[in-house]
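WARN no homologs supplied; continuing
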Amino acid sequence: MRELTYVARNSVEWREAPDPQLRSDREAIVAPVAATSCDVDTAILAGQGFIDPPFALGHECVARVIETGDAVTAVAPGDLVVVPWSISCGTCDHCRTGLTAHCTSVPHMAMYGAPIGGSWGGLFSDLVHVPYADAMLVPLPAGLDPVAMASASDNWSLSWRLVAPHLKARPGARVLVVARGSIGLYVCDIARALGASDILYVDPDPEHRKLAESFGARTAETIEPIRHGFDLAVEATGRVDQLALAVKSLTPEGICESAGNHFRPGELPLLDMYLTGVTLRIARDNVRTHIPDALALAASGTVTPERVVSHVLDWEQLPDALPEKHLKPVFVLDTALPQTAR
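OK structure emitted
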């Protein structure tokens, strides 16, 4: 099989790798049918990551199950499934309490798309080995488009977690979104659907702002901190100065969720945060725990994640098109998709 390999700044290529094989009765082999780039992949391709190439890239996809071990009961060959970005067993103490990104059965930070906790391959591959099929794979609900939900592996489900629990606890909360990619736009859509009273989206890209406005958000290219302006802030830029802007705009006891990958150091306004009494969460997301709820919201018809998809491209275009600057390209293996998804 082939796996798309990050080889140098803004450069990827197909490389041959052995076909994955089942090694236990709990495993599965899947074939991606709609895969997309995570916001962090853009930073990796730009040479801003902390892992030297080469390595297999990709950690967001909907896939078709090709083969399963005898003990697998949750999915069967032919099923369309969401493949979570992190590897989790489902049975260790952490997994049972929802901390699936911290599974103790595998090395710390075991994941697809980057060899941090071992080498697990990437989801821009013709075939993918899933070591814990029942624990990891989530069937795609009938009627959901695999192209629209290609990001459920990470960015879509993460965006649900960034706002949904907070809006449930604080109905009508005011939400600030400081972003550069798909996460911020998904957040705008979800926050509107779940009853945020005000959404301000901050992004220098005019096309992104236009899309955010269609989700009901006010927009700005840049802002200064708005003292006590928002109950919830979501930062998804990877820039510490923008994270500082977000926390300085919170109401007393406000909450800031940071979804940016901060590869560079910086300073936070800790005294301001102390005096305001803010809660800041910077976390590697336990996305497997949230995928079912995020898919249920998508299936409700109150959100439109497909509008964030900027391009639908053929699987064979991956090496040339992935390094280009697209908001949310989805690469499709057409022959594997049901007719309703094309």
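The first strand starts at residue 2 and ends at 8.
OK
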